[in-house]
Design goal:
- By secondary structure, this protein is α+β, with helices and mostly antiparallel strands.
- The chain folds into 2 domains: about 40 residues, no CATH class; about 90 residues, GMP Synthetase, Chain A, domain 3.
- The protein is about 25% helix and about 30% strand.
- It contains 2 helices and 8 strands, in the order E-E-E-H-E-E-E-E-H-E.
- It has a 3-stranded antiparallel β-sheet with strand order 1-2-3, with no helix packed on it.
- A hairpin with a 2-residue loop joins strand 5 and strand 6.
- Helix 1 packs across helix 2.
- The protein is elongated, with a radius of gyration of 18 Å.
- The two termini are about 35 Å apart.
Length: about 140
């Protein structure tokens, strides 16, 4: 249906290529040339300043849910004034394999619609989110 391409650029920055020394920072270039700097998680010698792959997975799930939610609201003529999410992902060890086992989305929506209507739209958005549909990670939506 569609392709989604990014370019990833990394170099050693003149540093020794040992596990302790090589830099984890790298650039991700999106369509249109937008660049972000990413790194590893601090527990894997990342800088702790830039988003890491685990953060980006949580962000992708949060963003996809929000965009699905807003699209459904617009089609149902439910007005939304604001949307915030305090999403959290859990990297866990299951049987010696590290993976993001679950992500909890905690959206806070300002809308004239009642809580029951918004909850129904969150359910539909979760079903429609193609990022959530693409991962084995459990995604839980807990509206605030």
């Amino acid at each position: 249906m569609s392709e989604h391409r990014v370019q990833l650029v990394w170099n050693d920055g003149g540093r020794p290529f040992t596990y302790e020394a090589y830099p984890r920072e790298h650039e991700i270039v999106f369509k249109g040339g937008q660049k972000i700097t990413a790194s590893a998680s601090p527990i894997y010698r990342g800088d702790g300043i830039h988003g890491d792959p685990e953060d980006m997975l949580v962000a992708a799930l949060s963003s996809c849910h929000m965009l699905s939610f807003l699209a459904i609201c617009a089609k149902k003529k439910i007005s939304v004034q604001s949307y915030e999410d305090d999403a959290v992902g859990f990297l866990e060890n299951e049987g010696g394999k590290l993976w993001v086992t679950r992500v909890i989305l905690q959206p806070k929506v300002v809308s004239s619609a009642d809580a029951a209507a918004l909850e129904a739209v969150h359910h539909l958005a979760h079903e429609a989110c193609f990022i959530a549909n693409s991962v084995k990670t459990q995604v839980v939506v807990e509206p605030r």
